[in-house]
Structures
1.
Amino acid sequence: MTLQSPAPNTTKTDDAVWASIAREEDRQEQQLELIASENHASEEVMAAMGTALTNKYAEGYPGRRYYGGCEFVDEVEDLARNRARELFGSERANVQPHSGTQANMAAFMSMLDPGDKVLAMSLDHGGHLSHGHTKNFSGVFYDFHSYGVEPDTERLDLDKIREQALALRPKLVIAGASAYSRPIDFAAFADIAREVDALFMVDMAHIAGLVAGGAHASPVPHADVVTLTTHKTLRGPRGGMILCPKERIVKINSALFPGGQGGPLMHVIAAKAIAFREAQQDSFKAYAAQVVANASALADGLVEAGIRIVSGGTDNHVMLVDVGSVGLSGAAAEDALHRVDITCNKNLIPFDERPPMEASGVRLGTAAITTRGLDVTDMGHLAGWIGEILRAPEDEATIKRVAGAVAELTSRRPIYA
Ligand code: PLP
């Protein structure tokens, strides 16, 4: 592996921290990362985060800062904003959110008053904590109500959601999820919101890279506000972003700063700018298409291995695997796969009877393994290995053989070659 942290000329004195960093780098190289919300950012993206931009306070926005000496970080933030706008065809962008949750906080603050009604996807069916969980700021300050998938299809039914919206009359309707494997019809959602005089927001954190690469329809033409994270399928640094039409940007900017954050992370904004440029290349379009092709092949392979996939398959980068169908809890399946260096997370499946810390599913995604060059042939092998482990999680001979096969594959397809 050639990735070196810190950069080669840096003097290392803190052995304890650097040793842990080295172990984490090795772990990433040696394990197949199937956590659907993770990816492997490029070395250039990571290098930008280890620069002197981390030293700079820049409260405010380019041209209107509360600190001196911002002329060069202004250049960087302008590059990031302009590239984001071009990439997603959005009139305006705010690239300062430290995370997806903070992007959502600013979006809500720009559109809602405390206590306002919001309709969003249920966390139990694939929604996100920041869409109304009772312990999250969203559930504390706003009156969240949820829609879910249908018991028979395990898909969203827009007619049902419309009925709910008509009965509830929310001020905001939110589309977007953390664990939903089917396309979301943003135009139909927008029609529902307009019919009930609600605003419409899309949280495209998971699918942002697919949208950028043309592998999923864009919500930008339909939504009043779009939020996203930059570190999932978009493959940038850890962070958030907000896109909106020009008439909304003043409120969004002030909801984010000073509303929810202080100084922006300029080193991360530089890394975002680099990632947006990477996502503008044809190679990123090919990447996004490959992520989807790989997910579809992995889901097909698992179904062939007799394992149930929620809703029968996937059209994007993610799938929910019902490991209850082979007699395991999600927690047990996560542990079993970890033993052979396949990393994933337990996840509730819709109408799950197990508690969240046990769950009946695991969520698998192909964004990170596609970055390291795995293709549909590899997906066939991977589905077979997952099937073998889930059917014989304690069988030492199977564990040894599959772990060996994973090690051979990861050494053949290094992340940072
Ligand atoms: N929104 C959705 C749909 C997500 O899946 C996530 C993260 O998993 C977030 C928001 C929050 O992102 P962050 O972890 O950066 O706060």
Note: The two ends are 6 Å apart (CA to CA).
2.
Amino acid sequence: MTIRSLIVGCGGYLPERSLSNDELAAAYGLETSDEWIVERTGIRRRHLAAADETASTMGAAAARRALERAGVDASEVGLIVVATATPDSAFPSTAVRIQALLGNTSGFGFDVSAACAGFVYALNVADTFIRSGQVKTALVIGSEVFSRIMDWSDRGTCVLFGDGAGAVVLKAGEGQGTADDRGILSSHLHSDGRHGEILLVDGGAGSNGKPGQLRMTGKEVFRHAVSKLAAVVDEALAANGLSHADVRWLVPHQANRRIIDAMGKKLKLPPERVVVTVDRHANTSAASIPLALAEAVNDGRVQPGDLVAMEAIGGGLTWGATLARF
Ligand code: UT7
């Protein structure tokens, strides 16, 4: 008998304000076009947080929805792991702020910093706590307010990102230790700090003392993305004795439609088996996978028994993949 982390509830939260590409260009005086953005990225709209919204308020909203779907009371949660690159402050962590907003006092929480790969990292951390027997119920949340770290004069980055939060509830369950088990089968994480300069926030909550903004050499990141993501998904499948044909759904990080389509092709999945939100959400960094997962699970696309592959790459570079059976 093996302990498995079952994904028993998913929830998402998006700020009310949604801007089309044209509305964004007009609002920030950007020299860009809907045509350029759609052709290069697939992005048509993004949500932007209101002045009083933060990673913790949005993360708590997503968490409440996930808990409700799971039928789990906030008091039962033993661990909260939040993936975010835009915490409310250096400390208290976003996780303990969310813990307070949910009214939980018995568990513990902390943040994980792995940029756009943060959700896959956080899922792996929570899964490990559950498998070790230390925790029975966990909340894993990705919550990002990238609008606060944008250089709004840089059209090469500011059109690409949006704000939002997604959450999943994990519960300890039992399995046989085979790939037929329900729950998280395995996660595979990588990082390579030599590529830190191609995608970074150049200040902010760190110790270098100036407000930070996101900087990206998009072409370089793109170059790494498809090869590293394809390799890590293959690594995850091989570790479980599975093949491309076993994957029912791909829930990829939503950075660029061209990267998503390339990954779908590599896995030989028909387009309708690839969950896409980038057109409506843009890139919400660590929130993009749990937001996409919440859509596909809650609208009934993902069915019990389905194998879901999740993959992401982000600043660091950090990247990883998780396989989970629902
Ligand atoms: O979530 C973390 C992971 N991030 C990613 O995976 C992002 C990966 N990278 C990408 O998605 C793409 O590289 C971008 C969408 C960021 C850029 O697409 P690209 O095809 O690599 O374009 P580019 O950066 O090479 O820019 C091409 C041209 C440039 O003009 P010149 O130098 O050819 O005259 C840019 O100045 O497009 C120009 N450009 C724009 N034009 C209109 C850049 N941004 C814009 C814009 N509107 N918003």
Note: The first strand starts at residue 2 and ends at 13.
3.
Amino acid sequence: MSAVTGPPEELAARRAELTPMLQQYVDRCQEHDDALVLFRVGDFYKTFCEIAEEVARICELTLIEREDSTGTYAAAGIPVDNAAEYLDALLDAGHRIAIADQVEDPSEVTGIVDRAVTQVITPGTVVDDELLSPDSTYVAAVVDDESAAGSGSAVASIDVSTGDCRVTSAPTREAAREELARVAPAELLLGPSVTSFEVDYPTTGWDEDAFAAETARERLSAYTDPGRFTPVETRAVGGLLAYAEYTQGGDGPLEYVSRVGRYDPADHLQLDGAALRSLELFENRGGGERSGDTLFDVVNETVCALGRRRLEAWLRRPLVERDAIEARHQAVAELSEATLLREELRDRLSVAYDLERLVSRVSRERANARDLRSVAATLAVVPDLTAALSDAEAPRLQQLREELTELGEMRALIESAIAENPPQEITEGGIIRDGFDNELDEVRSTEREGREWVAELEQQERERTGIENLDVGHNQVHGYYIEVTNSHLDEVPDEYRRRQTLKNAERFVTPALRRREDEILGAAERADALEYDRFREVRAEVADAADRLQALATGLGRLDALLSLATVAVGPDWCRPTFHDGDDGDEPLQIEAGRHPVVARAQPEFVPNGTELAPGSVALITGPNMSGKSTYMRQVGLIVVLAQAGGFVPAESASLPVVDRVFTRVGASDDIAGGQSTFMREMSELTDILHDATEDSLVLLDEVGRGTSTADGLAIARAATEFLHDEVGGRTMFATHYHDLTALADERAGVFNLHFTAMREGNDVTFLHRVDEGPSSSSYGIEVARMAGVPEPVVERSRALVDESAAGAATDRAQAAPAEPRAAESEARRSAGRETPPASGDGGRTVEPQTDAAEMAQTGGQQTLPEIVNAAPDGSEPADGEPTAAEAELVEELRSLDVARTTPLEALNRLQELQQLVEDQ
Ligand code: ADP
Ligand code: MG
């Protein structure tokens, strides 16, 4: 949080001398000294002195001078009516915002109106519609178990705008981090001992005491039975709820948080942060914002906010129970075939409001009359939905029909009580309908009769007095009056009392008129008060039904999510996946003509590819850069995720196992855009996979090992592949530029090669994007370099170097010893693998270039750049044609370049230096 919090120094120092209003401002700032206090004055949220300067700077507001009897102060005001964008800017700048609102009616107090902080706005606890995206916004807390026997952590999360609150245990910090990646909180609270916990979310300091066992337990017991939770879970969720309460004004439990639940991440397909990122489920890797290039964007055809959030949750946590998955598929199948039904349902749902957030506003006593009408309008949709679903056959749809309770009484109550188009304000009348409340009706008729009496008065008095131009009027200051022009003053009756003198006329009242006036005013005021009371009663009654309304909201969201998946499913070439598990668990994962849903949507000429992965198999995928390796692997990952979320998939057919986890790792240099790609991180991620992957997992490795020298990288890639094959036995796909790795296919039954080809015409390369069996023969690195614009002399020189080193390698190869027995090595790895990343013990042997001489001849001896580098002398393996000193220097330069830590600009400069080196020869 920013440093500009607490009261402005000057004001705090001179508090006693200040005007009562500024004193109050200082006090509120003092009470919320970790937040930026916005102080309601009239139609503005005001700030003063250095805080005003900060606000003016961030919000681009003009700083004004405020003068009173005690001095002149800088002030900045945010207009209350369109505060949203300013609040957004302040949040973005890292501020926590405390809204100090007037809590007394200015017309009823003499002196200064009392103000209290009614809401604290933080990135994770925003509840105002104007500030909220329709997506879920979570604040999370992570707490370590500090008890004697303790181990592990707990992760709790809450969406304050909907009341969705849950907690889970994580055995390790790493597991906690992964869980957080799935939650994707907008804000994170760190428990007392959770220091040095590096995450990408804004973290917030929060009261340590709130996380103390007893305090947290007590807090939680106001929501649910704390007995259901472990001690560390209780501390996490209890502390988090305290924070949620604090942000909502801090008086007592949040009624609408009625569903505090605990869950086990293993109840769903687990996608860790790296998988969510690299599969681009919700975020495009190019940047953070949703930009039309994610899986979510492709499958999101929801028509209301409830469905949108539900669908997002389904993709974040796909199912792992075959029955549940197939139940969704059956519903999606039925809805995708019944076009009319589907469109009717979507049409109806599209007028549903965001019931979850409405209910939470109702419970927080923030809902106005319009909100209640929105609740009723949403309830009005339900009978049509259930009627439309009456012939549904899929059990999931039938069940959903049962879940959609009509709550007819609630709707009738709101519709009979609340005016159809009520005003925004709830204190100024016009919100309760006639006929709803006897007392209100009486008061209103008194008011009406009074006004009618006044309206008739003019005519009456004209007749009575004979003054033809006598007028009856009303103004703010003097109220009702009878106006008589000066020429008729002598005709005025005795009981007229003078009220006001004008230039050409006098204004009068009569005792009867004054009585009526009091009656009218009293009745109007009384009516407003009554309306406000009735409104609050109705709102409280709706709040009492919060549970049922939330259940209905969930049902509506589910229906919308199913309809969305069904709408996508009718698209060309989407199919219903089938599943196998248990007895038939030996069957392969099999996809025919699969497509990458996101890439294929943008590229109509997308080339479909099939996939077949038996249990325990490893597919090694080679091919030139840009040939489609990454896309192909991600397409398999996305199809698996989508299928288990309940969706149809972009393929001709898909027969799938139920997968427990999808791991994806992208090698450091492929991830350079992320900025933080170090080899260390790559390796620690690899470690996680080797630890956590099971025989039911899908592991997608993309160029892993790239962040280090070729020798080490290849060794690690090989050892990891062997381990995944020999020990883990899940399904693995490994896209690699280490051509040498392809030899593993000859040694292990489950390892096989796939490759992508490119066609070479003259010096140009065309990518076919078609996957074929067997290893790639060449990776066309130099052509790609040429296409990318590397200057011709460098390209030519590279060709020459390749030819030389190919000749050398071929000689080398001929001299190499036959492969050694593997059993002993494998045993050694087995014992080491669970503890540490696989050691590069056999690196020395596997680094040697193994390009087949015959292949070389056939392809013109093309090699990848790493192979060129590798062929250079490093002391251990003198090649046949010893390179010149300059060549050696060139190669050494290349070798020493830490790509992961080089900026594009540096890289360009280095490239130019290298080019110079070549040209100098
Ligand atoms: P690699 O990982 O082999 O370097 P990518 O998977 O990143 O290659 O693909 C490079 C580009 O090729 C993608 O951005 C995409 O535009 C295109 N591409 C990939 N696969 C296909 C395909 N099956 N059909 C058509 N275009 C494809
Ligand atoms: Mg790639």
Note: The pocket of magnesium ion (ligand 2) is lined by residues 629-630, 670, 702, 735 (CB under 6 Å).
4.
Amino acid sequence: MCGIVGYTGTREAAPILLDGLSRLEYRGYDSAGLAIRNGTELARVVKATGKLKNLAEKTDNGRSLPGTCGIGHTRWATHGEPNQTNAHPHVSGNARRSASGPVESDVVGVHNGIIENFEELKQKLLNNGYQFYSGTDTEVVIKLVDYYYKKYKIGPVDAINRMMVRVKGSYALVLMFRDYPGEIYAARKDSPMIIGVTGEESFAASDVPAILKYTRTVYYMGNLECARMIPGSVTFYDLNGDEVQKDTTEITWDAESAEKGGFEHFMIKEIHEQPKAMHDTLNSIIRDGRIDLSGAELTDEILQKTSQVYIVACGSAWHAGMAGQYVIEDLAELPVRVELASEFRYRKLLLEKDALVIVISQSGETADSLAALRIAREKGIRTLAVVNVVGSTIAREADHVLYTLAGPEIAVATTKAYCAQLAAMYCLALQMALVRGRLDPERYTAMIEELLTIPDKIEKVLEDKGRIQWFSSKFANAQDVFFIGRGLDYAISLEGSLKMKEVSYIHSESYAAGELKHGTISLVEDNTLVIGVLTQNDLIEKTTSNMTECKARGAYLMGLTSYGNYSIEDVADFTIYVPKTDSHFVGSLAVVPLQLLGYYTGVARGLDVDKPRNLAKSVTVE
Ligand code: M6R
């Protein structure tokens, strides 16, 4: 969740690290810090609470910290409250230091992840004379490296390896050692870490956007590996301290896609990038009017043999899975269960041997989704990852990978990655339906043709954003919002509701429309906003009745439907229309006004929509 950047090279490190951190701020933003070394001088550490701009101001945009080697961190607190003491970097020394002076420490480091046995390790270190100044697990792990380094009089790689054997949990660590100026060491287990090397410079980062400006050629660190970086070179080691040879991966994302490009926020930019995300994803899978899953090595035979599908994911990816469930069940007549990854991993599900477990994830690093994937693999069940970030852990560990081509998504609230996930699920459903003989070839072809029109239809929906902006300002002070729908409309409501609460902080709930009267309707009172999603023709009447029940209790009704369903206006106080399309794909259109509604409501309330409080883009802890 936290963002990490490291640099060693020929240029001033601090401005490069601040720039890299600014591109990772979506990973955490309750405090930030830098440790910079100037030649053989001791590292100087500066930290600030709140957004990264506070750290930039405190260091005069890095100018007050000269030196060509350094590490930086932007934090999403797990252990210890978000204050300056708990901010990273942390040091192995015992004494409290002045605000930005040099630190008398042999090891200084930054960390992303959770050290599960940190209490036990802390006690061991206390018994050995260490003192602790923070409430973090990170300080413990850095002092543990220091302990082994001194006790056994070994080098950094061996000390880190000893730490890795002892520590339980997940981590990406970047460290500097006082005796090794110009060198940076990295270690990882279950938290992402990439290394980029170009010319006379080396970079470490927890995510690609941090270093995209400098290099597109990266190494992905493996689990329980350690790396030693010097300017322009990196060496990887395994737990035995033996060198590991690695290939580089070329990142194809262009640097502009990680910039705001004239938009006020990343979220609205990414909402507008959905036609492209969908177009690119569809066109990577559809060739000559047919779905081609050979890139994911998913043969017709595998799909024919599949007896049950489990879709496992978190948050919005889980919502995409919900939509996928309705489409696969309806088109392919294949049983599907959609599971929250955090539940799946601890349930003793009896998985069928011919099942396919589909893990959906934008980041490919979500801890619960990764754990679920590993459980399925341990049980010998075939796994398919639907992932956006190339080379991410989930992508690397799954049996099959279907990449969504949404490009880098920076706003914490997902929009275009979710849109691309829907595209991938439609393609899977259509191909499953064809090879299982549930869809005749003519209808299959016609549905693919219709699917390819969706990107243009999303453009049409975006043209209507002015009305949604107006409506958002009208309800910006709402206390509660309820989203209701049935079937696929319910899946889309779930996503609309999450967008609303994530970025506007207004309490919102999504209910299967028929379920409302079993309790939740007691919350509806005068002027409560109830948003009905009504795109499934066979269910419109039913949901309309549920909306009428709310209206009778004083609710203000917004209807979201396709052009042609004008009778909704007899019930709804405000109606938004999306273009007509096949009912299986209409969710890709209906979700757009709901994303805009969340976005504009957050903006109207003056909130930081790209970095909502308490959230992180990539949830790499349990
Ligand atoms: O990277 P992932 O797709 O695995 O992330 C899953 C969720 O954490 C993510 O969708 C989250 O719910 C977003 N904040 C939603 O906007």
Note: The chain has three domains: 3-251, 258-452, 463-610.
